[in-house]
From TrEMBL:
GO cellular component: a single term: membrane
Pfam family of the protein (one): DHHC
Basic and acidic residues compositional bias, start-end: 395-404
InterPro entries named in the record: Palmitoyltrfase_DHHC, PFA4/ZDH16/20/ERF2-like
GO molecular function, one term: protein-cysteine S-palmitoyltransferase activity
Domain Palmitoyltransferase DHHC: 155-298
Biased composition (Basic residues): 405-418
An annotated GO BP: protein targeting to membrane
Region (Disordered): 395-418
This protein's name: Palmitoyltransferase
Catalysis performed (reactions): L-cysteinyl-[protein] + hexadecanoyl-CoA = S-hexadecanoyl-L-cysteinyl-[protein] + CoA
Annotated TM spans: 6-26, 80-100, 106-124, 200-227, 266-287
């Protein structure tokens, strides 16, 4: 039982640390113990190690490790992809032979499909162009989304690529390219998640979540039937007549009886909540009509609003179209411009600054419309149907723009979890 407890604790510890690494920087967890632990691990502890090494070796060790770490974290390489494939492959090699003869033909077919799907979408996520922007395709990417004049303003240029920045784009320091509708750089696919591969990435998350859940459920069912044959009163929820130690002892016997099945079932069961958490968060961002990159920007803008540094004024429709001549894809145009000042004073009047009327201080995000949120269904269409023309959808007697405006009236705009 000592070995089993160590395995359980080890898997729980790894799962928790992965959760902290992935979710510790989320705006929603900013003032929680998770965020403080993330800062301790990734900021305070490395700084303490660097300070100690400066005294012991004048920084030679940490500089060497830093170069290696910079390569791992800031350069593209397939290390994590290979590690991800190894975990899935080894787990399936350990698991499938143990259950294959105990399941029906139909279940075998569903298992095969469930196993194949994540590999398919992993390949497509890695191989697809995430939406790299170049001078050759700049016009196309400029047409995809309008500037919202809140997070994204026209006239900005990427200082590295030396090309104009389309709305919703971001320069990736790892890919060394600008990416259209940049969400984040994902080490599990060795690429960015952007306009060109976001649909594959979402399907990868969904199918991986289903795989781990299905594996845990199938393994638990087979393991439970074996345990009930030996102890008919045993169930996965301890009964009143059974102590926890006895229940754990029976479970430990079952796992040790078939280590391959027990270990992989345990791993699938414990890792499923983490994978589902990442999957649900990604689909929540889709529902909100935003990206990981934009949710961080909204969080920063929210802080500026609370401090009184954000101002807005009316933006005429004619001015909002100047930055993307000829564009007809997106059905909604911005109605206001938001600027942040450094002195908490209204922006200085400038002929080049668009908008009309007096500047008004804005304090809350719910007073700002998210231009890129068209509703769940059309947010999904934007992701899964590249260059989808929204103007071709909707009621014949009601323009899409008006339909989307009316959907927003009377409710707060969604920004994502922070």
């Amino acid at each position: 039982m000592g070995t089993l407890k160590l395995v359980l604790l080890g898997i729980l510890f790894i799962s928790f640390m992965v959760f902290v690494a992935f979710f510790g920087r989320l705006p929603a967890l900013r003032n929680t113990p998770i965020a403080r632990l993330h800062r301790l691990i990734w900021i305070h502890l490395p700084n303490a190690i660097v300070a100690a090494d400066e005294r012991l070796s004048s920084g030679k060790i940490t500089r060497s490790l830093s170069r290696f770490g910079q390569h791992l974290m800031n350069d593209r390489h397939p290390t994590v992809v290979i590690f991800f494939l190894a975990i899935m492959g080894v787990s399936e090699i350990m698991f499938l032979p143990q259950v294959w003869s105990n399941i029906s033909r139909f279940t075998q077919l569903t298992v095969a499909l469930t196993v194949i799907a994540p590999y398919t979408f992993l390949y497509l996520s890695c191989a697809a162009d995430p939406g790299y922007i170049s001078s050759q395709n700049l016009k196309h990417h400029m047409r995809l989304y309008p500037y919202d004049y809140a997070l994204f303003h026209p006239g900005r240029e990427c200082r590295t690529c030396r090309i104009p920045k389309p709305a919703r784009s971001k320069h990736c320091s790892i890919c060394k390219r600008c990416v259209a509708k940049a969400d984040h750089h994902c080490i599990f696919i060795n690429s960015c998640v952007g306009y060109g591969n976001q649909h594959y990435f979402l399907l990868l998350l969904l199918t991986t979540s289903i795989l781990t859940t299905y594996g845990g459920f199938l393994g638990t069912s087979i393991l439970g039937s074996v345990l009930k044959q030996r102890n008919p009163q045993w169930s996965f929820w301890p009964s009143k007549g059974m102590t926890f130690n006895k229940w754990l002892g029976i479970l430990g016997w079952g796992i040790q009886r078939n280590v391959n099945l027990g270990a992989t079932t345990l791993l699938s069961t414990l890792i499923s909540p983490l994978v589902w958490g990442l999957c649900i968060y990604s689909f929540w961002l889709v529902y909100c009509g935003t990206t990981t990159n934009e949710s961080l920007k909204w969080s920063e803008l929210q802080e500026d609003m609370r401090d009184g540094y954000a101002f807005r004024r009316y933006l005429p429709a004619s001015a909002s179209k100047d930055s993307r001549p000829g564009s007809t894809r997106w059905p909604v145009d911005p109605e206001q411009i938001i600027l942040v000042t450094s002195d908490a004073q209204p922006p200085v009047e400038n002929p080049s600054t668009p908008g009309k009327g007096e500047w008004e201080r804005v304090r809350q995000l719910r007073d700002v419309e998210n231009l890129y949120d068209l509703g769940l269904w059309e947010n999904l269409l934007d992701i899964f149907l590249p260059s989808y023309e929204f103007g071709n959808v909707g009621k014949k007697d009601e323009p899409v723009v008006e339909r989307q405006r009316s959907k927003r009236r009377g409710k707060s705009a969604k920004r994502g979890p922070f």
